UniProtKB/TrEMBL annotation:
Belongs to the ABC transporter superfamily. Macrolide exporter (TC 3.A.1.122) family. One of its GO terms (molecular function) is ATP binding. Keywords: ATP-binding, Nucleotide-binding, Translocase, Transport. GO terms for cellular component: membrane protein complex. InterPro entries: AAA+_ATPase (IPR003593), ABC_transporter-like_ATP-bd (IPR003439), ABC_transporter-like_CS (IPR017871), MacB-like_ATP-bd (IPR017911), P-loop_NTPase (IPR027417). This is Putative ABC transport system ATP-binding protein. The keyword Translocase applies. It comes from Salinimicrobium catena. Gene3D superfamilies: P-loop containing nucleotide triphosphate hydrolases (3.40.50.300). Pfam families: ABC_tran.
Length: 233
C-alpha cells in the first residue's frame, strides 16, 4: 500500500539547512495498523506530512497504492489525496460553526456528492462512531473524545484506503484515549490501513507494529506481539 525508499528531507531556514529525514525506508501493507514513535524533533510529523502528500521529499521515492507520488500537478495530487487518504489530528480541526453532521458531510460536499446522499452517509458514519444522537451539536458542545470521534467519522466519510493520524490521543485523558484507540482498532479490523504518530508507549502498544525514529532514521521496526513477548524473556 505504502512504499518509501531512501527518503530525505531538509528544511532550509535563513542561510542554514536542517537535514530532518536521512534515508527512510519502509513499507506498509494493506490492513496494517502502525505507530510511528520517536522523541520530539525526530522527524515524525515531517514523515507523516510526506506520506499525506502535504509535503514532498527532496530525495527518494514514495509509492502509494502502486502510484509514484512525485511531481504530480496540484489538481491531480489533491484528487489522489482525497481518494486515498484520510487525516486525523491532535486538535480535531473541526469547523466550530458547523454541526457534527455537517462536519462529517463536508468532504463529501467537496467531492460533489448530492445533499441527501451526503447527509445519509454522514449520519451512517456518525452512528458508526457512536454519535448518532449528537449529530446536531456544535463541536464546543462535545467532549474531547466526542470531537475526535466526529473527526474520525469525517476522515472515514470519503472512504479512504489509508488513515493518517498525528497524535490522535494527544489532547485526551487516558480513558478517552483508550476508547478512541478501541475505535481505531475496530476501523483497522475492517481492513483499513492506519498510521499513527504518537509519543505514548501505551497507545503504540495498541497498534500492531511500532516504527521508532531517531534523528531522522528508523532505529527499530517491531511487531507489537514481539514487543510484548520480550517482556517475558
Ligand atoms: N517547516 C519547517 N521549517 C523548518 N524546520 C522545520 C519545519 N518543520 C519542522 N522543522 C524542524 O524539523 C525537525 C523535525 O520536526 P518534526 O515536526 O518532523 O518532528 P517530530 O518528531 O514530529 O516532533 P514533535 O514530536 O515535537 O512533533 C525539528 O527540528 C523541527 O524544528
Amino acid at each position: 500500500m505504502i512504499e518509501i525508499k531512501d527518503l530525505h528531507k531538509s528544511y532550509k531556514t535563513g542561510g542554514s539547512s536542517l537535514h530532518v529525514l536521512k534515508g527512510i525506508n519502509f513499507s506498509v501493507a494493506e490492513g496494517e495498523l502502525v505507530s510511528i514513535m520517536g522523541s520530539s524533533g525526530s522527524g515524525k510529523s515531517t514523515l507523516l506530512n510526506i506520506l499525506g502528500m502535504l509535503d514532498e521529499a527532496d530525495e527518494g521515492t514514495y509509492t502509494l497504492d502502486g502510484v509514484p507520488i512525485k511531481n504530480l500537478n496540484e489538481t491531480v495530487a489533491a484528487r489522489y489525496r482525497n481518494k486515498f487518504l484520510g487525516f486525523i489530528f491532535q486538535s480535531f480541526n473541526l469547523i466550530s460553526y458547523k454541526s457534527a453532521l455537517d462536519n462529517v458531510a463536508l468532504p463529501l460536499y467537496y467531492q460533489g456528492v448530492k445533499r441527501k446522499e451526503r447527509m445519509e452517509s454522514a449520519m451512517n458514519y456518525l452512528e458508526k462512531v457512536g454519535l448518532k444522537d449528537w449529530s446536531s451539536h456544535l463541536p464546543n458542545e462535545l467532549s474531547g473524545g466526542q470531537k475526535q470521534r466526529v473527526a474520525i467519522a469525517r476522515a472515514l466519510a470519503s472512504d479512504p484506503k489509508v488513515l493518517l493520524a498525528d497524535e490522535p490521543t494527544g489532547a485526551l485523558d487516558s480513558k478517552t484515549s483508550y476508547e478512541v484507540m478501541d475505535l481505531i482498532q475496530e476501523i483497522n479490523e475492517e481492513g483499513r490501513t492506519i498510521l499513527i504518530v504518537t509519543h505514548e508507549h501505551d497507545i503504540a502498544q495498541m497498534t500492531k507494529r511500532i516504527v521508532n525514529l531517531k534523528d531522522g532514521v528508523i532505529i527499530d521496526d517491531t511487531l507489537v506481539d514481539q514487543v510484548k513477548a520480550q517482556q517475558y524473556v
